[in-house]
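Please describe our next protein:
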Amino acid sequence: MTDTPTPPATAREWHLLSRPVGWPEPENFALVEAEVRAPGEGQVLVRNEYLSVDPYMRGRMSAAKSYVAPYELGKAMQGGAVGEVVASNAEGISVGDHVLHFLGWREYAVVDAKTAVTVDPQAAPLSAYLGVLGMTGLTAYAGLLLTASFKEGDSVFVSGAAGAVGSQVGQIAKLKGASRVIGSAGSDEKVKLLTEEYGFDAAFNYKNGPVSEQLRAAAPDGVDVYFDNVGGDHLEAAIGSLNRDGRIAVCGAISVYNNTEPAPGPRNLARLIQTRGRIEGFLVGDHYDLQPQFVQEVGAWVRSGELKYRETVVEGIENNLEAFLGVLRGDNTGKMIVKL
C-alpha cells in the first residue's frame, strides 16, 4: 500500500479579511486553523507540497469586476498547488498519486477530482508543474506563439523578463528562431542572468534610465513582437519601437496593480496607424487545449537543458503572504514557490 501519513484534524490556511487599497498589508490577511474534512463523492484530499503565488492574485483581492471571481472575505484564498493525495473518494485517482489543482494558500485541500490533473514526479520536479511546465509556462507559450503570432526571424522584446513567464518567453523565442531577443528587468543581477544564462541577445535595467531610450539602444532595428508583463512606460516604449505589422501581447501590467489612481495610458497609440501594429490581451485559461502540445515540446527542452528555469523557494505556509508580496516587489528570480 502506501506510507501516506494520516491527515491531522486541523490544518492552516490563509484567509482574506479585508480588501487592500493600494499595497496589500498584513492586517488584510489571517492565517487560521481549519478542519480537515474527508473527501465527498468524486473528491480527493490533498496534502499540498508546493504552492504558487502569482501577480494576478492581487486582482482577486479587489472587488472590482474582472476575468476571475474575487476572493471571498473570511474564506480560504485560492491559487495553484501540487501535492499528494492522502484520501480518495474518486475513480481514477488513488492515494499516493500527485495532483495539480487550484486550492492553494492552505496545507490540506479537498479537491473535486474533475478539476485535478495527475502529474508525474518522476518526469519533472513537482514544483515545475507550478512554473515552467505549469500555468506560467503555458502563458508564455500561448502568448508568444498564438497571441503575438511569433514567426521565425522576429525581433522580440520581453518586459519582466527575469520572471517566471518572461524568462520562458525569451527562451522559447530563441529556440524557435528569433533574430534578436531583448529583455528588461529590475536589477543589474537579473540583466546579467538574462544574457548569460537564458541566452537573451540584450537586456537592460529599467531603473537605469528611460525605457524608451534603453530599448532603442538595445533594438536599433526595432521590434516585431512585444510581450508585455509590465504595462506603463514599457508599453509606451514598445509602441515607439514597433516595426511595421508589429504585434503586442498583453499578459500583465504589474507596474499598475497597486495604483489607487488610474495609470496614464500610452501617449503614442497613434503610432499603431503608421506601423499597422496590433495590441491584443489574452488569458491562459483560453488556451488549455494547448497543454498536451506544450508539455511535450517544452518538457523536451527542459529535459535536454535547452530551456533553463529558476525558482525562488520560500519555506513554510506561515511565509505564504510574504512570498506573494515579494512577487509584487520583484524579489523573485523565476517562479516564486512556497514549499510546505
Q: What stands out?
A: The longest helix spans residues 291-304. The chain has a mean pLDDT of 94.
